[in-house]
Write a structure and sequence with these properties.
4 domains, flat, alpha+beta, Pdz3 Domain
Length: about 500
């Protein structure tokens, strides 16, 4: 009897531990399967340009990371797929690569969504679930494919800070999560995981030689991006067309503007011309709340979950054409303002675009988008650059016997051609190509001059191009202007 009892008891324990082992390993295998099949390695070939030699286009190869979300979509960084010519996606542990293409990209927030031609890829993939903004000091795991290996890498750490930071790719500022987990080249675009859910996307940071930590794009910005593209279009991120100053100074806040001690906010120092803000806001207004959330004198807003972020974050979370609700104090009186968000945020850099250039007399000129500033109506009316679209820079001087003494002028930002201002690359080109004067005189904003002998430049241009083995004297749009006789007076 005792023998049978002990034997039965032994069998029950044996089966119990076997079942526990099977369940635990099955759970571990399921977790391993879901993550390894959800985080992908991205292979790409992209164009590379040297701004001082804009006619030269080379190709570079690189890798990055992405991850699968619902809807047969893959999220990665915009900087990974910038200027791409060919993209492929590879699963962990597999040799097969799948051709991919970009569907949407937000260079401002360094996010991109790619899709695959072969939809069967997603039959064996488990999409990751998006979570919420994590808390400070929570443990986080970063998944990616850093250079130096093919296998999926996992690094762990904690959330150090969540605050407004500069995004390297766009040079714009948005909310970012700082982590102390190691981040290496190739990790960009991978998911940051807390409790099996995505809380952010790994991105570039200023010092990538330091792998002791890094930054991730928070999941709420990712969700904002996905909501934006729900209708099949990426509309962009709204810009608040005003300039502000914090009101931490008691003398300024209470002494000059007479703001009551129980109120706080930020001061409007400038309202940008030709924007919706002109109709409802004025210089000297004090914004005390945004969408019902109180603004502190240091520009911070306390959220419902006890978060504290700079007020600009709450504008970033809006979609274009949303109505921003502001509480203001104007000349001591409180008012509620509805501001349509129609002004879009645009990075100063140009993305996914070949260099725009023109070579004349050995001088290499490159056009770039003009970075517009916020001007008041009064400033706009007297500004010489109010209609400016492009800037033109002398980036290189191809040495010849005809341009001696001018090699040190580059880089030089050109403002006038024969005393005439121009607003676009096309106007600049037309001023030079239709000039009749023996000398074409170019100046910068400091009055530094570059004199080009027109007859010599026209005669020697082809010779100079051949000498330096330059196959293309100008970019494609210049060819089109010539073909259409666009500069004929």
């Amino acid at each position: 009897m005792n023998y049978c009892f002990r034997y039965t008891h032994f069998l029950l324990l044996f089966f119990y531990f076997c079942l526990q082992f099977i369940v635990q390993n099955a759970f571990a295998l399921d977790n391993k399967y879901s993550l390894s099949s959800s985080v992908v390695k991205i292979h790409l070939t992209a164009k590379s340009f040297d701004i001082s030699e804009p006619w030269n286009t080379s190709t570079i190869s690189g890798t990055g990371t992405g991850f699968v979300i619902k809807g047969h979509r893959i999220i990665t960084n915009a900087h990974i797929v910038e200027d791409n010519t060919f993209i492929e996606v590879q699963l962990d542990g597999e040799s097969k690569r799948y051709k991919a293409s970009i569907s949407f990209v937000s260079h401002e927030t360094d996010l991109a969504l790619i899709t695959l031609d072969d939809q069967s890829f997603f039959d064996k993939v488990k999409p990751l679930e998006l979570g919420e903004l994590p808390d400070i000091h929570q443990k986080v795991s970063l998944y990616g494919y850093p250079v130096g290996g093919d296998a999926l890498s996992i690094t762990e750490g904690v959330i150090s800070r969540i605050e407004y930071q500069n995004y390297v790719h766009s040079d714009l500022s948005y909310l970012a999560i700082q982590v102390d987990a190691a981040v290496n080249y190739g990790n960009s675009g991978g998911p940051a995981i807390v409790e099996k859910k995505v809380v952010g996307v790994v991105m570039q940071f200023d010092n990538e030689d330091d792998n002791s930590g890094g930054y991730i794009i928070p999941v709420n910005l990712l969700k904002r991006f996905l909501k934006d593209i729900d209708d099949g279009n990426f509309d962009g991120i709204p810009n608040l067309p005003i300039r502000t100053q914090y009101l931490e100074s008691t003398a300024l806040r209470e002494g000059y503007y007479k703001l009551p001690a129980d109120k706080s906010g930020i001061l409007i120092t400038k309202v940008c011309a030709n924007t919706e803000a002109e109709d409802v806001l004025q210089q000297g207004d004090i914004i005390t709340a945004i969408d019902g959330k109180k603004i502190e004198n240091n520009g911070k807003v306390f959220g419902a979950d006890n978060t504290r972020f700079v007020f600009l974050h709450y504008i970033d979370m809006h979609q274009m054409n949303d109505i921003l609700k502001l509480n203001i104090v104007r000349k001591g009186k409180s008012k509620q303002i509805n501001l349509p968000l129609k002004d879009i945020t645009i990075a100063d850099q140009e993305f996914d675009q070949d260099p725009r250039y023109f070579i004349y007399g050995g001088y290499v000129f490159v056009a770039k988008k003009y970075a517009k500033d916020c001007l008041t109506t009064k400033e706009y009316k007297i500004s010489e650059d109010k209609d400016k679209i492009d800037t033109l820079t002398l980036v290189n001087v191809l040495s010849t016997s005809y341009n001696t003494g001018t090699h040190d002028l580059a880089p030089m930002n050109i403002t006038t051609v024969n005393q005439q201002r121009f607003n676009s690359f096309k106007e600049f080109y037309c001023l030079i190509s239709t000039a009749k004067t023996p000398i074409i005189l170019l100046k910068d904003s400091l009055g530094i001059s570059l004199a080009i002998d027109r007859e010599v430049a026209n005669k020697t241009n082809d010779e100079t191009l051949e000498k330096y083995q330059i196959h293309k004297a100008q970019s494609a749009e210049v060819d089109q202007w010539e073909k259409n006789n666009s500069c004929v007076n």
